[in-house]
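Internal ticket - ligand job 194, flavin mononucleotide:
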Amino acid sequence: MGRIIEPIKERRSIRNYKNKEVSKEKIRKVLEAANWAPSNGNSQPWEFVVAKDEYAKKISKVFYDWAKDYIPNADYIPEEKKKAMLEYSKDFGGAPVQIVVTYQTGEDEIETEESLMAASAAIQNLSLAALEEDLGTVWIAGHIAHADRTKEIIDLAEDKKIAGIIPIGYPDIDPAAPPRKDPNLVEKVKWLGF
Ligand SMILES: Cc1cc2nc3c(=O)[nH]c(=O)nc-3n(C[C@H](O)[C@H](O)[C@H](O)COP(=O)(O)O)c2cc1C
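stdout (structure tokens):
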């Protein structure tokens, strides 16, 4: 493994953080890496909202208000995992900062889809760069990314959407890697003309 593939495999979604501040300088570094992602027509359709303290609390509350009803009723979540998940959903496992990654939407459906692709590439860059700064992240999407309340908290323009909310901080956990389906790529890859 090389200098790129190793960190790609080592990155884990972190759902438990140390009670330790993250410097603005470190966050700036990971955002700079995010900003170097490829994009449709080099449009760079992403923006970043960095939230801490009362802003992070408000965003977490949107998540918890949804999760406290959703998790207990979700049949696919094993009962024994529900308590820990609810605890995590209160403040994303104690993450001191959240980075909201937004993208530009427009009239053209394909262009909007490509903007989301580009913002997603930025999020992956961000998550990998965080490793170099000894920081952990997790990509949160789903309900909270679409909720009007989240958009109000960050004062998001009408023509923008949220690609992900990325809690970031010093990991307080070293989770095992969730296995990848078909790791030897027997089923997932169709080789044509080989
Ligand atoms: C688009 C997207 C949405 C995700 N949404 C959530 C989420 O809402 N909550 C969460 O805890 N993890 C979320 N994740 C993280 C995945 O659960 C995680 O990447 C996956 O389980 C693999 O684990 P790993 O990141 O440690 O390799 C999301 C990941 C992606 C790419």
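Auto-summary: The chain has seven helices and four strands. Helices lie at 5-10, 24-34, 53-73, 79-91, 109-132, 143-146, 148-154.
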